Description:
Order of helices and strands: EEHHHHHHHHHHHHHHHHHHHHHH
Number of strands: 2
Structural class: mainly alpha
Distance between the termini: 50 Å
Strand content: under 5%
Low-confidence stretches: 1-39, 119-176, 373-396
Strand order of the largest sheet: 1-2
Largest sheet: 2 strands, antiparallel
Helix content: 55-70%
Number of helices: 22
Shape: elongated
Region (Disordered): 1-25, 121-142, 376-396
Amino acid sequence: MDIDYDHNDAAAEPEVNPETRVGTGVINDVGNESTAQETKLTKAEKEEQEAVRRFGGDRTMELQSFPTAGVQGMAPGNRHELRNLDWSDTQAIAAWKKKYDVTEEILRDWQLELIAMGSQSTFTPTDGNTQQSDESDWLEEKQTAEEISLSLTSSDSQQRIGLGVGRFAGGMTTPASSRAHHRELELQWNCLQNTWIKHTNTPFPKLPATTKKWRTAIDYAPDLLMKLLETFEAPAYVLGSMTDAVLDQWTIVARKDCLVHCLQQFANQINDEEQQQWLLSCCEQVKAQAEEDPGALNLHPTELWSRLKKLKFGNMELLKLCRKKLLQQLTRLILASRIYGPELRQLRIDTDTAVPSTTIQYLDELFDALENRQPDRSVGWSSTRHTTTSKTGEIR
């Protein structure tokens, strides 16, 4: 049935409840928005609220349920772009500000809101009182999206910072508290600047940090950055602000260590003298490149990996992880073995074992913990690789 909205017919215009909330504004008894919220409204949001006041009736319910302004009014593609917006790209930021007629502060708030909404960002949030069924298809996805938001309490969190304990326990947060929680994590990380400047003159990567700042930090103070993440309450949140390229560059030396270790092990166990000499020669070439320029190190030359493939990688799972197609997986394993080292050491049966000092020792500790210290360590490597991927996936 078509509804003819007569704007001049006062009888057709319903009364507006003084407490009715629309978008982020509040309509008072004279039909004006609350002055406390007005400064945060965009032009599109004001037009939307004016439409609600003007039409009323079914149109009111429609606009309240399906907002056309702000984050809720964005198309899914635009949400994805805003969620991954690089704040160092001034041209992109200017384009967003012009497109939505908003300030940079509002854009940052929208991005935090989208991050908090996670994988369900294309859906309108349900009422907070809605009970989620145990059989819901979205339950597992919701938990996964919020695993990176670890629960914090004002007193307990301050006691745990620096201990590196308890960070495996994920905390569920509500959409209303996620933004405040993210800001609290940013504040806690930024407070570590005082510790940082005591050890280096390199600029501290204060959140939100640009890709350039992260690259500078990993180039000039990689060990210090790792130490801070080892003691920080929510390292996954900080790592989530880095790009894959930054993480890969940060771990290139550690990945070189893995490759050299595997090639040497392979050479020691192979009976073919010619192949043995070739493997040892490859080791020396990789180490020479690393000493000359670690940043330009090529760990995936086609000739090397084509020949290793014909040799079936010596049946070494760690060597398989060094392949280019598994680069990001190995990167995450290396970072997890270092950052979650305090927790992993608590799982060890032999508490007298020394603290790891090399990349291989850290990875051994990680795999031992995930395999529950199986007597035959050659068993279950394939499943371990799958398990470690899923368990360390939270750091991105």
